[in-house]
Design a protein that fits this description.
Distance between the termini: 149 Å
Number of helices: 15
Transmembrane segments: 41-60
InterPro entries: Carb_sulfotrans_8-10, Sulfotransferase
Number of strands: 5
Order of helices and strands: HHHEEHHEHEHHHHHHEHHH
Membrane topology: Single-pass type II membrane protein
Strand content: 5-15%
Shape: elongated
Organism: Oryzias latipes
Largest sheet: 5 strands, mixed
Strand order of the largest sheet: 3-1-2-4-5
GO molecular function, one term: sulfotransferase activity
C-alpha cells in the first residue's frame, strides 16, 4: 500500500505558538545592569593585569639583554640634533650657569689669535692648507663636531668618545672600546676625506676643538712611551736604530739592530738636528701642535687643556647635549708624566740643546699660554 506524499509547507505556513511579552520587572532590570557593569570592570581588570604582565616580561628581558636597554646614542633617540648645535651653545650669551667656563675658553681663543698675529707679522712664510693637512681632524656629523687629535694628550680616550658619538648606538661606554680599536683609521672619518666645498662648510659651521698639553711634558711622555717600553718594537726599529746610529759613539751591535735603549739625550739631539728636518715631518707623537692642527689657519672654538682634562671635556659634552649620560673617562694619574719628572729628564740636557728644543716648540708655548719652564737654562 502506497502512502500519498505529504504536502510541503513553506516557512510562513508552519504552525506557530502565540507570542506573549513578559514584562521586565524593575528588580530584574537592576540586576542585569549590575551584571553588565561587573562584566565591564572584569574586562578592565583583566586588561590591566595583562598589560602589567607584559611590562614585567620586558623588564626582565632588558636585564638580561643589553641590546634592549636604553641607548642614548641612537639617531632616533634622545640625542637627535635640536634647534641649537654645540657651536651655537658655546657662543650663546645666555649661558648663565656656564659663564665662568665660557669666559675661560674665550680667553684661550684670544691667546691663540694673538700669538698667531705676532707669528704671522714676523714670518715671511705664507701657506694654504691642503686636504692632506687635515688628516688629524676627526668629524662627527651627527653632533656637528670637529676634533683635532694630538698624540699624548688623551687622544685615545677622546677617540673612544668620538666613536660613541658617531657610532649611532654601536657603542655606549668609551672604556669598553679597546685602545687599539680606537686607533683604526676606518673607525672615524677625518676631514681630508671630504671635497673642498664640504671641508669649507664644516670648518665654518661645526664646533672645532682641540686638547693641548705643556709641550715638554708631552715630549717626555712621548719618549717614555715610544722608547722605554718593550712592546713598542716598531718605534725601536723605525726610529731607535736611526737615532743610535747617528748619535751614539761605539754603539753595541745589538743596540744598532734593536734600537730599544735610546737615551733621552740622544732623542733630543735627533729632534734639533737639521738633518732630521730634511727627513720629512716629525712623527705625530712629537710633532708640534702648530704643525698637526694648524691653529693659525683653523679657528678652534674650544681649546681644552690636559691639566684640566676632565672639566674641559665634560663641559664640551654638556654643550653637545650628551653630558647627562656620557662622561669623559678618568685617567690613571699615577702613570702620567709630571712636571717634576720632566725637569729630571731635562737636567742632563746642555743649555745649548735646551735652547734649540725650546725654539722648536716655542709657538706651542706661546699659543697655549704655557710659561717657560723654570728648570730650563736659556741664558
Amino acid at each position: 500500500m502506497r502512502l500519498a506524499p505529504l504536502p510541503v509547507l513553506s516557512p510562513h505556513q508552519y504552525p506557530q505558538e502565540p507570542r506573549t511579552l513578559v514584562p521586565v520587572r524593575p528588580a530584574m532590570k537592576q540586576t542585569l545592569s549590575e551584571l553588565m557593569r561587573m562584566s565591564r570592570i572584569c574586562r578592565m581588570v583583566f586588561a590591566t593585569c595583562l598589560g602589567s604582565f607584559v611590562l614585567v616580561i620586558f623588564y626582565f628581558q632588558s636585564l638580561f639583554n643589553p641590546a634592549m636597554q636604553t641607548n642614548h646614542f641612537m639617531v632616533d633617540g634622545c640625542c637627535k640634533k635640536g634647534s641649537r648645535n654645540a657651536l651655537q651653545e658655546l657662543y650663546n650669551p645666555l649661558q648663565s650657569d656656564l659663564s665662568g667656563a665660557a669666559a675661560l675658553h674665550q680667553a684661550r681663543r684670544d691667546q691663540v689669535v694673538d700669538a698667531c698675529r705676532i707669528y704671522s707679522a714676523s714670518s715671511r712664510k705664507r701657506r694654504v692648507l691642503t686636504p692632506g693637512d687635515l688628516k688629524h681632524l676627526v668629524v662627527d656629523e651627527d653632533h656637528e663636531l670637529i676634533y683635532c687629535y694630538v698624540p699624548k694628550v688623551a687622544c685615545t680616550n677622546w677617540k673612544r668618545v668620538m666613536m660613541v658619538l658617531t657610532g649611532r648606538g654601536k657603542y655606549t661606554d668609551p672604556m669598553k672600546i679597546p685602545s687599539n680599536e680606537a686607533h683604526i683609521p676606518s673607525n672615524l672619518k677625518t676631514l681630508n676625506q671630504y671635497s673642498i666645498p664640504e671641508i669649507n662648510h664644516r670648518l665654518k659651521n661645526y664646533l672645532k676643538f682641540i686638547f693641548v698639553r705643556e709641550p715638554f711634558e708631552r715630549l717626555v711622555s712621548a719618549y717614555r712611551n715610544k722608547f722605554t717600553l718593550k712592546y713598542n718594537s716598531s718605534f725601536h726599529k723605525r726610529f731607535g736604530t736611526r737615532i743610535i746610529r747617528r748619535y751614539r759613539k761605539n754603539a753595541a751591535q745589538d743596540a744598532l739592530v734593536n734600537g730599544d735603549d735610546v737615551k733621552f739625550k740622544e732623542f733630543i739631539e735627533y729632534l734639533v738636528d737639521p738633518a732630521t728636518q730634511k727627513d720629512g715631518p716629525l712623527n705625530e707623537h712629537w710633532q708640534t701642535v702648530y704643525q698637526l692642527c694648524h691653529p693659525c689657519h683653523i679657528h678652534y672654538d674650544m681649546v681644552g687643556k690636559y691639566e684640566t682634562l676632565e672639566e674641559d671635556s665634560n663641559y664640551l659634552l654638556q654643550l653637545v647635549g650628551v653630558g647627562d649620560f656620557l662622561h669623559f673617562p678618568s685617567y690613571a694619574k699615577s702613570t702620567r708624566t709630571t712636571d717634576i719628572m720632566t725637569a729630571q729628564f731635562f737636567s742632563n740636557i746642555s743649555s745649548q740643546k735646551q735652547i734649540q728644543v725650546y725654539q722648536l716648540y716655542k709657538l706651542d708655548f706661546l699659543m697655549f699660554n704655557y710659561s717657560i719652564p723654570s728648570y730650563l737654562r736659556l741664558d
